[in-house]
Every structure is written in structure tokens, then in C-alpha cells.
């Protein structure tokens, strides 16, 4: 009976040990989850970039939103340096692979956009892995970011990782 108890205890310890070892990789993987949004507040204006997913297969699309919001309690006006308020970019490790408004024309005028407290501007685009040079999407890691063209200066968002996977 004493041998059966020892054997049962040994198997219980072995089972707990194996289960604990299997849980560790899952925990490590969850720490590597990519962020799906970036935000920053400058002069009571929130700039927020978000994506609906960070990985796509060929033929799928990542939907991206860029919000500029007045988070103050008073009316604010934004001065844009042209009618091109924002642009969206996708880059790999070394180069830009896609620009949303590449080759498009915009009026070079200062445009004032008033925002009441809580009001926002929303800009959206979809990226399906296209490249400016043409050709098929290439599997790999990319980064999505946006820029807002204000008279007071360029606002460049942080980069959100995006992957084209098998």
C-alpha cells in the first residue's frame, strides 16, 4: 500500500510538472501580442491610430482608423497645411511599401477645421498587402502609421505591427 501511495504521488507530481511546462509557452506567447492601437494627446487634441487586426492572409484586409479628437472643454481649431489632412503608410524594415495618397493632388491652402469639445475627425483606410511597386503581397512583418499635416507641425503616429502570414 505504501508503494502504491508513493507511485500515485510520483504520477501526480509528474502530471503537475508536465502541465506547468505546457502552460509556460502559452504565457510567453501572450506577452508577445501586438498592440492594435496607438494614441497621444498634444495640446488637448487626441491623435489615435488603430487597426482591426494585426495579421492577415493574402486576400484579407486590415482596416485602419485615425481619429483626431478635441478632448478639452473648449472649442479648438486645427489648421491643416493643405486639403490633405492625413496620410497612411505601410513600411517594412527598410522602406515604405505603400502610401495611401501617393500620386494624388491636393490644394495647397491653409484649412481651418473647428472642433467643439468631444468632436472628432475620422479618417479610415484599408490595406490588403498591396505594394506601391505592384506585384503580389509578400509574407512578412510590416508597420502601419499615419501622419497629420498641421500648420503647427507634422504629427506622426507610432507604428503598429502588421503581418502577412500563410
Q: Can you tell me the CATH architecture of the largest domain?
A: Sandwich
Strand content: 35-45%
Individual helix count: 1
In the predicted model, the low-confidence regions spanning at least 5 consecutive residues are 4-34
CATH class of the largest domain: Mainly Beta
Whole-number mean pLDDT = 82
Q: Into how many domains do the coordinates divide?
A: 2
Give the biggest beta sheet. 6 strands, mixed
Shape: globular
Could you please say which CATH topology of the largest domain applies here?
Answer: Immunoglobulin-like
Helix content class: 10-25%
Distance from first to last alpha carbon = 55 Å
**CATH superfamily annotation of the largest domain:** Intracellular proteinase inhibitor BsuPI
Q: How many β-strand runs? A: 12
Commentary on this structure:
The protein is α+β, with helices and mostly antiparallel strands and 166 residues long. The protein folds into 2 domains: 1-33; 37-165, Immunoglobulin-like, CATH 2.60.40.2360. The chain contains 1 helix and 12 strands, in the order αββββββββββββ. The strands form 3 sheets. Strands 3, 6, 7, 10, 11 and 12 form a 6-stranded mixed sheet that branches. The radius of gyration is 24 Å and the shape is globular. Mean pLDDT is 82; it is low at 4-34.
Give a topology summary.
Layout: H1 2-31, E1 37-42, E2 45-51, E3 55-57, E4 62-70, E5 76-80, E6 86-91, E7 96-99, E8 111-115, E9 120-127, E10 140-150, E11 153-156, E12 160-165
Parallel strand pairs: 3-12
Antiparallel strand pairs: 1-2, 2-4, 4-9, 5-8, 6-7, 6-10, 10-11, 10-12
Amino acid at each position: 500500500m505504501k508503494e502504491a501511495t508513493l507511485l500515485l504521488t510520483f504520477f501526480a507530481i509528474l502530471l503537475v510538472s508536465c502541465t506547468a511546462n505546457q502552460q509556460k509557452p502559452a504565457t510567453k506567447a501572450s506577452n508577445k501580442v501586438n498592440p492594435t492601437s496607438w494614441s497621444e494627446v498634444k495640446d488637448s487634441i487626441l491623435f489615435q491610430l488603430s487597426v482591426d487586426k494585426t495579421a492577415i492572409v493574402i486576400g484579407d484586409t486590415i482596416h485602419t482608423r485615425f481619429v483626431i479628437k478635441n478632448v478639452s472643454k473648449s472649442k479648438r481649431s486645427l489648421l491643416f497645411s493643405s486639403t490633405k489632412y492625413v496620410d497612411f503608410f505601410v513600411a517594412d524594415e527598410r522602406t515604405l511599401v505603400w502610401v495611401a495618397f501617393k500620386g494624388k493632388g491636393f490644394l495647397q491652402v491653409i484649412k481651418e477645421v473647428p472642433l467643439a469639445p468631444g468632436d472628432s475627425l475620422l479618417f479610415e483606410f484599408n490595406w490588403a498587402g498591396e505594394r506601391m511597386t505592384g506585384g503580389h503581397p509578400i509574407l512578412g512583418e510590416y508597420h502601419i502609421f499615419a501622419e497629420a499635416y498641421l500648420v503647427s507641425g507634422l504629427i506622426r503616429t507610432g507604428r503598429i505591427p502588421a503581418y502577412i502570414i500563410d
